TrEMBL record:
GO terms for biological process: respiratory electron transport chain. The keyword Phosphoprotein does not apply. Belongs to the FAD-binding oxidoreductase/transferase type 4 family. It holds the Pfam family FAD-oxidase_C. The lineage of its organism: Bacteria, Pseudomonadati, Pseudomonadota, Gammaproteobacteria, Lysobacterales. It comes from Pseudoluteimonas lycopersici. This is FAD-binding oxidoreductase.
Amino acid sequence: MTDLRLDALRHALPGLRLLDAAADLEHYGRDATRRWTPAPLAIAQPANTGEVQGIARWANEHRIALVPSGGRTGLSGGAVAANGELVVSLERMRRVLAFDPVDRTLTVEAGIPLQAAQDAAREHGLQYPVDFASRGTATIGGGIATNAGGVRVLRYGNTREWIAGLKLVTGTGELLDLNRGLLKNSSGYDLRHLAIGAEGTLGIVVEATLRLADPPPPTGVMLLALPGFDAIMPLFAQLRRTLRLEAFEFLTDKALRHVLAHSGKDPFDSTHPYYVLTEFEVDEAAALSAFEHAVGQGWVEDGVIAASEAQAAELWRLREGISESLAPHTPYKNDVAVRVSAMPAFLAEADALLGREYPDFEVVWFGHIGDGNLHINVLKPAGMAQGAFAERCGGVTVHLAELLEKHGGSISAEHGIGLAKKPWLLGTRSAAEIELMRGIRRVFDPNRIMNPGKVFDP
């Protein structure tokens, strides 16, 4: 049966690409969580900002909810369309629009993959330093929507620090040009920063002006084997004091085993319970001295220092390949953050909590521990139904959220709230904050068409 609402959209925007085949609804209606059954109305693939504005106006007229969609690598259900929404996929809006050598900025459409933006910056002898494993698929717009962090936050910070300006189509179809690439701008509220991390609830980011940095200095990479959990933070403190760290990543032996089951060779002759992967500005003498000191303190049992770029890439694959290697096990993911200073106490209590509550489940830890961010993955047993597994994990997340609140942490460090973390938002934000956020959302999107149901309920 023909949907008259979609007919009206086709009439209003005759050049708009619309998809409604079952395979397309399945593909574009979900993100990487795989916990919700996709059921979108259709998939719109605008080719320009004008078409995005037209979609928003149509959605207001017909009261159709919109779900912005980038690379759909999100892990919190933020890009799920499960209730008849129109998915607005920006994959046709992936052009590099401008490079400014004086301002050192790159202006791109929001659908461009992160890696393509990084490559474009390199062509001009600069870098866009936000980086994470899904760089080939994740888009700049998606990174803005969740204020993505990644593996180099320790040196460069989150996405927020690198967005000089952006264009946002609001829930009324109005186009806002926010900050316009200015370095200094004290002319009232900076609405750009409201859009960053809003997960598409205030509007659809269609264009971004990225700040670029000098190319990274030559770096070294070490993979260190640790005897116990309590060695991680002393090691971090020592390396940060003696080296210029780019990254400090943590993984358990369980995580390493899953990666090696896919491919690759174990860099060590024996197994160790915990590992740290660190990248640092090259200083061979300082690195060797730091390693020897850590061994002498009993913090490190073994280590590998990459002798080539190829070996460095192979060591990084052991960290960046974790999520892909866990995907077949349908993991329940928690992406949490605490202050780095609070990490030792939180780690001890969280480890005890998970050991007590999940004695029969495999739990895999890894994360960007140098910036206080941990990823906790509970793997679904092969014979357990998805619904029962999610319910069991959700019950334990209640306790984890209480622990995070105790330590002043957040239930979401970099994956967003979406649908998955919405029940625990109150542990991170006060009721007064959430009510203010609701009010801001109503101003940008009075008819609540922009990604409704995500982050918090109306």
